[in-house]
Design goal:
The protein is of the alpha+beta class and 145 residues long. The chain is built from five helices and six strands, in the order αβααβββαββα. 40% of the residues lie in helices and 22% in strands. The longest helix has 21 residues. The chain starts with a helix and ends in a 5-residue tail after the last helix.
Length: 145
């Protein structure tokens, strides 16, 4: 009987842990501008998104990341950092207008990350400080080997 209860508790704990797992959804970068114009229904029909929570990213490049609690939206990939910066500013403006209407989203963040297959586990998908060019090899002039 005690074993049965222990197994039940373990199963319940596993279900709760899985339910509280961070979800990562990837959208094309065009979804940023359309997200501000479309209704939620039209947006979901146009951009169903790709859930990469279990699989990880498969395309290298820059991604604009919107993060709130256990939900992460990635928009990309983009090859051009300048364009990524422009899209980040657009998403920040949209985020601000939404936060003014719904203050519970004020803890959300918007940043840019770089994903590539040569990354180590320590820096894979880590946010880049795009306002500090010395942290990005492409902008600092450092040659990659």
């Amino acid at each position: 009987m005690k074993t049965l209860i222990a197994i039940g508790i373990a199963i319940a704990a596993a279900c709760i842990a899985q339910a509280q797992q961070e979800r990562i959804i990837v959208y094309p970068v065009e979804a940023i501008a359309d997200g501000a114009r479309f209704s939620q229904q039209k947006f979901n029909e146009t951009y169903p998104g790709i859930d990469v929570t279990q699989y990880g990213l498969s395309d290298e490049g820059w991604y604009i990341r919107y993060k709130h609690e256990l939900l992460t939206y990635l928009y990309g990939p983009l090859e051009d950092l300048t364009y990524a910066r422009h899209q980040k500013k657009l998403l920040e403006e949209i985020r601000l207008s939404v936060v003014l209407k719904k203050p519970s989203l004020s803890s959300s963040t918007v940043d840019i990350i770089r994903f590539d297959f040569n990354a180590t586990p320590d820096n894979m998908g880590v946010a880049e400080d795009v306002d500090n060019p010395y942290l990005i090899p492409e902008l600092s002039g450092e040659n990659e080997e």
